[in-house]
C-alpha cells in the first residue's frame, strides 16, 4: 500500500474549474470518508511516477486522510462512493484479474463457473471457476448475438442456447442449442433456422425458453430432456421484441420503446401484467432486487422500481459513452458503455468507479457485461476482461473529451481539451508532455481537477517541417494503470497535405502494387477501391 | 469499411473481375490469427493489405472520432473520386461502372 505517500500528493488547484462533469452523482459526495486499507486484495495500483511527485503538495479538500474508515465513525456509511460503511482506501475500484477468450464479443453470460461469449466467430466458452485463471474450453462455429445458459442435464451436461437474427454473414436467423459436457467439450445439438424469424434475446426459465423474435413477438418454447426446444406458443403485442430478463416469476421484455412485464408463474402461459415506456430505444435489460435497469445506448440508462407488478418511478441517467449492456448484482449495477465500463450504486445510481480496459487509441468497444460474485465480465471486441470490483476503493478518475486529436497537419491549430475528474479524490495532472514540444504546447500542463469538475487545457499546434505522428502524454494520479500516463494520439497529415476528392494518389500508395514491386504506376488505368476496415 | 461489410465488396470485386478494377481490403495491423479466422469464416477473396500510413492522409470528417470505416474510390486517372464512411453496394457499383467507362 502506498497510502502514506499518496496522502502527500494533493495538487495545487491552479486553473479555475469551468464546469461540473456531466455525469450524475459520482463525485457529488466526496466528503469525509475512511482512510486505511479497505481489506480488499491489496493490489493497490497507484504508483508514484515522476509525474506525480512534481505536483504541488498543498492541501486539498478531499484527500483520503479526510475520510473515515467505516460506518459509525464519520462520513463513510451509505454515502456516494461507499456502501454501508465499507472501509476505504485509495486505489482503483476496478482491477483486471483475468482475461477470457472472445472475439468480436457482443454479448456474454456467466453461470456456474462458466462464461460464454457470443461474437462474430461463434460462441466461445471458458471455465471461470477461478476467475483469475480462466481456462478456455472451446468454441462452436455458430456466429451468435445473444445467449443464455440453460439447465444442467442429469449427466452434468450444461445446455447453452445461442441466437442470431441474421445479417450479411448469417443469411438465415438461427436458434441453436449447444451442449457443454462435464469435460468441457462443446457440441451443437439442434439448430432451428427460419428466414422469417429474427431471433433476438433469449432466456431460460425451468424447462421453458423465452425468445424475443423481433416483429414476431415473444415465443415460448418447451425443452425436452436434452434442452432442445419445441414451440409452445407465440405472444404478440410488441414493436420488435429484442431483449429480455427474468427475475423470480417476472419476465421482462423490451421492444422499441418500452418494457413489457409478464407473470410466468405458469411458465407455459405468460400473463401480461403491465408495460412502461422507456426514454430511448432499449439495448439491454437486467432485473435484480426489485430494480429493473435498462440500457439506452447514447441515451444513458434508466432504472425502474419493480417491487410491485409494474415498472414505477423511472430514473434516467445520462452518462458518457453509449450504454450497450447492463448487469445488476446485490448493491451495484455495472454498465458496458462502449468505450468504458462503469459501476454504480444500485439504489442511488451514484457512480462508484469506471474503467477503460485499454488505452484510448485502442478503441475498446464494450458491448456486454455480466456480474458474478463481485467480478465484472466485460465483453469487448478482442476478448473478455474480468475485472474485480473493490468496494470502498476510491481515487481520481481522468476523463477526456477527445479520444484522439485529428486535424489538418499543415496549418496552425488550436484546441480546447476538457479534462474531467469523475473520481472521488482530486485529480492531479502533474504534466502534459508532447512528443515534440516544438510542435505542441499545452497550457496549463500542471493543475488539479477537483471531483466532479472539468478543466480546460489549451492546445496549440505549430506545423513541423516534416509532419509525422505525435502524441500527448498526461501524467496523473489516476490509479488505473492504463490511464497514467494517458497517451492521447494525435494524427496529422504529413507535409504533403491531406487527400480529398480530386487529388491524385501519390507514391506512398506503391505498397498496393499487386506484383509486389512497389510500383505506384501499377495502379494506373485501373479503377481502385481502397476499403480501410477493422474487424467488427 | 466495417469488416462485416467486406463480403458485399468482395461480391462487387468478383462481379467485375474481368474489368480493370483493383479492390484492396486494408487493415491497420489486425492480429494475423484474427485475419485468418476472418478469411476462413467468410471465404473472402479480396487481398488483405496492411496499411503503411495512408489512412490518415484522406479527408476525415471532423468530430467522428473513429477512423473506420473509410472507403476510397479512385478513377482510372489516379484521382480520388469518392471518400465515404459507409459502404453502399449499389452506390459503389454505379460509380465503378461510370469510372470504368471513362
Task: Outline the structure in words.
The complex is a heterodimer of chains A (536) and B (102). By secondary structure, chain A is an all-beta fold. Among the domains of chain A are: 3-93 and 397-492, Sandwich (Immunoglobulin-like); 282-389, YVTN repeat-like/Quinoprotein amine dehydrogenase (Methylamine Dehydrogenase, Chain H, 7 Propeller), CATH 2.130.10; 499-536, no CATH class. Helix content of chain A is 1%, strand content 42%. Chain A contains two helices and 41 strands. In chain A, the strands form ten sheets. In chain A, strands 1, 32, 34, 36 and 38 form a five-stranded antiparallel sheet that branches. The longest helix of chain A is centred in the first third of the chain and has 4 residues, at 3-6. The radius of gyration of chain A is 26 Å and the shape is globular. Chain A starts with a helix and ends with a strand. Residues 1-54, 56-62, 67-77 and 493-497 of chain A have low confidence and may be disordered. Chain B is globular, with a radius of gyration of 14 Å. Chain B is of the alpha+beta class. Chain B has one domain (3-100): Glutaredoxin (3-Layer(aba) Sandwich), CATH 3.40.30.10. The model of chain B is unreliable at 61-65 (pLDDT under 50). Chain B has three helices and four strands; from the N terminus they run H-E-H-E-E-E-H. Chain B starts with 5 loop residues before the first helix and ends with a helix. Chain B has a two-stranded parallel ribbon. Chain B has a two-stranded antiparallel sheet with strand order 3-4. Chain B has helices spanning 6-15, 32-42, 89-100, and strands at residues 21-27, 48-50, 70-74, 80-84. The interface between A and B is large, with 44 and 65 residues. Strand 41 of chain A pairs parallel with strand 1 (21-27) of chain B, so a sheet runs across the interface.
Amino acid at each position: 500500500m502506498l497510502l502514506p505517500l499518496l496522502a502527500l500528493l494533493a495538487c495545487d488547484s491552479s486553473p479555475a474549474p469551468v464546469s461540473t462533469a456531466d455525469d450524475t452523482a459520482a463525485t457529488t459526495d466526496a466528503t469525509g470518508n475512511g482512510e486505511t486499507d479497505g481489506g480488499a486484495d491489496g493490489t493497490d495500483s497507484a504508483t508514484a511516477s515522476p509525474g506525480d511527485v512534481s505536483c504541488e503538495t498543498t492541501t486539498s479538500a478531499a484527500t483520503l486522510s479526510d475520510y473515515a474508515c467505516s460506518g459509525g465513525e464519520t462520513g463513510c456509511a451509505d454515502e456516494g462512493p461507499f456502501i454501508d460503511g465499507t472501509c476505504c482506501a485509495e486505489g482503483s475500484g476496478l482491477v483486471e484479474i483475468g482475461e477470457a477468450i472472445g472475439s468480436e464479443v457482443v454479448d456474454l453470460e456467466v453461470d456456474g463457473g462458466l462464461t460464454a461469449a457470443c461474437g462474430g466467430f461463434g460462441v466461445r466458452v471458458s471455465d471461470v471457476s477461478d476467475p483469475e485463471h480462466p481456462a478456455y474450453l472451446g468454441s462452436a462455429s455458430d456466429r451468435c448475438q445473444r445467449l443464455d445458459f440453460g439447465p444442467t442435464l442429469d449427466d452434468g451436461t450444461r445446455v447453452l442456447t445461442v441466437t442470431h437474427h441474421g445479417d450479411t454473414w448469417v443469411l438465415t436467423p438461427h436458434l441453436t442449442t449447444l451442449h457443454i459436457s462435464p469435460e468441457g467439450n462443446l457440441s451443437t445439438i439442434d439448430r432451428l433456422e427460419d428466414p422469417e424469424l429474427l431471433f433476438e434475446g433469449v432466456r431460460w426459465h425451468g424447462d421453458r425458453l423465452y425468445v424475443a423474435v423481433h416483429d414476431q413477438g415473444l415465443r415460448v418454447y418447451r425443452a425436452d430432456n436434452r434442452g432442445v426446444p419445441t414451440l409452445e406458443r407465440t405472444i404478440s403485442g410488441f414493436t420488435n421484441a429484442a431483449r429480455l430478463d427474468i427475475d423470480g416469476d417476472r419476465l421482462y421484455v423490451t421492444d422499441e420503446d418500452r418494457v413489457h412485464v409478464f407473470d410466468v408463474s405458469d411458465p407455459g402461459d405468460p400473463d401480461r401484467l403491465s408495460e412502461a415506456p422507456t426514454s430511448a430505444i432499449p439495448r439491454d435489460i437486467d432485473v435484480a432486487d426489485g430494480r429493473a435497469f435498462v440500457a439506452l445506448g447514447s441515451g444513458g440508462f434508466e432504472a425502474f422500481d419493480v417491487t410491485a407488478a409494474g415498472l414505477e418511478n423511472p430514473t434516467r441517467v445520462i452518462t458518457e459513452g453509449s450504454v450497450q449492456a447492463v448487469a445488476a448484482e446485490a448493491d451495484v449495477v455495472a454498465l458496458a458503455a462502449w468505450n468504458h465500463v462503469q459501476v454504480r450504486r444500485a439504489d442511488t445510481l451514484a457512480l462508484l468507479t469506471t474503467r477503460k480496459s485499454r488505452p484510448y487509441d485502442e478503441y475498446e468497444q464494450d458491448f456486454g457485461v455480466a456480474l458474478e460474485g463481485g467480478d465484472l465480465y466485460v465483453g469487448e471486441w478482442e476478448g473478455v476482461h474480468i475485472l474485480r470490483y473493490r468496494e470502498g476503493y476510491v481515487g481520481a478518475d481522468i476523463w477526456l473529451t477527445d479520444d484522439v486529436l485529428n486535424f489538418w497537419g499543415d496549418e496552425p491549430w488550436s484546441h480546447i481539451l476538457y479534462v474531467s475528474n469523475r473520481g472521488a479524490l482530486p485529480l492531479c495532472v502533474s504534466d502534459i508532455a508532447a512528443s515534440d514540444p516544438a510542435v505542441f504546447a499545452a497550457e496549463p500542463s500542471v493543475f488539479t481537477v477537483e471531483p466532479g469538475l472539468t478543466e480546460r487545457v489549451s492546445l496549440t499546434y505549430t506545423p513541423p517541417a516534416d509532419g509525422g505522428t505525435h502524441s500527448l502524454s498526461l501524467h496523473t494520479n489516476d490509479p488505473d494503470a492504463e490511464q497514467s500516463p494517458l497517451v492521447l494520439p494525435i494524427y496529422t497529415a504529413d507535409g504533403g497535405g491531406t487527400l480529398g476528392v480530386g487529388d491524385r494518389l501519390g507514391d506512398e500508395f506503391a505498397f498496393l502494387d499487386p506484383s509486389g514491386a512497389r510500383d505506384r504506376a501499377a495502379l494506373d488505368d485501373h479503377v481502385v477501391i481502397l476499403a480501410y476496415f477493422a474487424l467488427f | 469499411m466495417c469488416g462485416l461489410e467486406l463480403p458485399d465488396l468482395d461480391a462487387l470485386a468478383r462481379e467485375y473481375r474481368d474489368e480493370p478494377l483493383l479492390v484492396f481490403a486494408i487493415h491497420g495491423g489486425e492480429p494475423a490469427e484474427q485475419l485468418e479466422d476472418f478469411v476462413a469464416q467468410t471465404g473472402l477473396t479480396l487481398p488483405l493489405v496492411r496499411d503503411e500510413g495512408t489512412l490518415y492522409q484522406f479527408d476525415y470528417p471532423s468530430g467522428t472520432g473513429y477512423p473506420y470505416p473509410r472507403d476510397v474510390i479512385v478513377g482510372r486517372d489516379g484521382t480520388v473520386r469518392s471518400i465515404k464512411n459507409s459502404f453502399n453496394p449499389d452506390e459503389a457499383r454505379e460509380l465503378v461502372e461510370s469510372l470504368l467507362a471513362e
